[in-house]
Amino acid sequence: MITLENDYLKVSLNAKGAELQGLYSKETEIEYLWNANPKYWAKHSPVLFPIVGSLKDDHFKYKGKSYELPRHGFARDHVFEIEKTSSAEAVFTLTQSDETLKVYPFHFKLKLIYKLIDRKLNLTYEVINTGNETLLFSIGAHPAFAVPNTPNTNYEDYYLAFNTDERLTYWKLEDGLVANETGNIELDGHKLNLKHELFYNDALVFKNMQSSCISLLNNKNDYGLHFHFEDFPFFGIWAAKDAPFICLEPWCGVADGVNHDHQLQRKEGITSLAPGKNWERFWEVECF
Questions:
Q1: DSSP helix/strand/coil, 252
Q2: Prior bond to 105 cis, omega within 30?
């Protein structure tokens, strides 16, 4: 376990999956991250790469060959190399291997850069195409935040505040795939009140959300967090059934549609990266 620490935050990281496993505020004395209780969901904040969500029939096709990948890809289950650590920054890397090439025929370097900036934790994803052909990939975040996170509060006391959106359209999921049916959520003054029933039919999947910051707040006290993200065309909000957490998930990629033809280059949300080029996105969480 690697620890980052400054005057405001203490963060725990694991080389397996380069996963964030603790986000503690010294000022509020609150642990904001979900504790990965396997009763509900045994993860904290996995990285989703090289796909986000599920593939139709659990496989894709590329250059006439078929490859099987599990939901959300393989990065979360691999041990990353620790490239750099200091008190306020850690850099993890993952590259292709004989094992990954059997299921994903691309050369790549994936870097996760964690950095403490006062009361904020910043996570930057960098993807580098180290091969000789176009790299096709998706990537996404899946951090789970504890709800409730303070005594004398319950799940229904909490809400999400969107900095721009007043109405949300979400795509429904059908056996883990994006269906052709949508639903609408009318926000109450940019607020979505949390209730477990929201997620009884799996995640809420949004496309082209206008907001760039979602705050997790509650009606009983002034503690919470701001979750900042930019240039992610998809966003998921999810919790396991009746679980005491909420996942805020900016994605560059999305699960296959129910009518997808398995061709990777035609997968919705796929990113194409030329040889030798690199690609970056980041999100950050501010605790208070």
A1: strand
A2: no
